[in-house]
Amino acid sequence: MRKKIVAGNWKMNLSFHEAEALIHNLMDELEEAKPTAEVIICPSFPFIEMATDYMEEHLFKVGAQNISPFDSGAYTGEVSAAMLASMDVTHCILGHSERRKYFNEDDKMLTIKVNQALANKLIPIFCVGESLPERESGKHLEVVRRQVRHGLFHLDTDEFAKVIIAYEPVWAIGTGMTATPEQAKDMHSYIRTLIAERYGDEVAKATMVLYGGSCNSENALEIFSQEGVDGGLIGGASLKAEEFISICKQASIQDV
Ligand code: PEP
């Protein structure tokens, strides 16, 4: 039996002192709750060092929200995968719909970033998901298929086995409109079918596929108990320690 995963995406939120307070609260609550789920927090770059300083592997791991497609050099404002790996960062969110939308990150760019992450031993948390018009016009499977294939299927089996996928319907992110348990279950199952076609059943079964999109302490248990849902990528609700820990506890009730 393997553990579920709960990753908190803090996005571009909090001041330094608020981030510090949140980390302290999380540590206290995690120490007490001792969830069996693997907990990852993904703060903004300026707070990464603080998070890794406080990091205790048994309580939480630290992920980044982005990496540069470049190795190093004259790329003002960029942060490389190698820099993050040298600070004990273990994971990296890639392909988030906000980066696809506001920063024009396309499949080609994401392929390069996935390669950068893996070359530097960062585990990509690779996000896929359809928009509302795509869902309403019945194109959701086609969209997710393209994102999974174009973003990840260039990897060989050993590389792919390191990747975590997050299904995040764009219409559910930050909207309070969660996917129904059936919608989540069906898409997770579809993603696994795609993986099985490319890498075989064993790899498909072993791949962690998280759900993200308005997940909170009220709906986490129902979503996490769906077959094939291996945990969650949590945005807004990860900014409140109590709420986030409640989600982590619910993920811990049912290990995968
Ligand atoms: C996210 O941005 O990854 C996310 C899941 O956000 P929220 O939980 O706020 O919908």
Radius of gyration: 17 Å
Number of helices: 12
CATH class group: Alpha Beta
Instruction: State the distance separating the first and last CA atoms.
Output: 6 Å
CATH architecture: Alpha-Beta Barrel
Task: Fill in the keyword field for this structure.
single chain; TIM Barrel; 12 helices; binds phosphoenolpyruvate
Notes on the structure:
With 256 residues, the chain is α/β, with parallel strands linked by helices. The chain has one domain: Aldolase class I (TIM Barrel), CATH 3.20.20. 45% of the residues lie in helices and 14% in strands. The chain is built from twelve helices and eight strands. It has an eight-stranded parallel beta barrel, surrounded by five helices. The chain is globular, with a radius of gyration of 17 Å. The N and C termini lie close together (6 Å). Phosphoenolpyruvate binds next to strand 8.
Question: How would you sum up this structure in a few lines?
Answer:
The protein is α/β, with parallel strands linked by helices and 256 residues long. The chain has one domain (5-253): TIM Barrel (Alpha-Beta Barrel), CATH 3.20.20. 45% of the residues lie in helices and 14% in strands.
How would you summarize the topology of this molecule?
Blueprint: E1 5-9, H1 16-33, E2 38-42, H2 48-54, E3 61-64, H3 81-85, E4 91-94, H4 97-102, H5 107-119, E5 123-128, H6 132-136, H7 140-152, H8 157-160, E6 164-167, H9 181-199, H10 201-206, E7 209-212, H11 220-224, E8 231-234, H12 241-253
Parallel strand pairs: 1-2, 1-8, 2-3, 3-4, 4-5, 5-6, 6-7, 7-8
Helix pairs in contact: 1-12, 5-7, 7-9
This protein binds phosphoenolpyruvate.
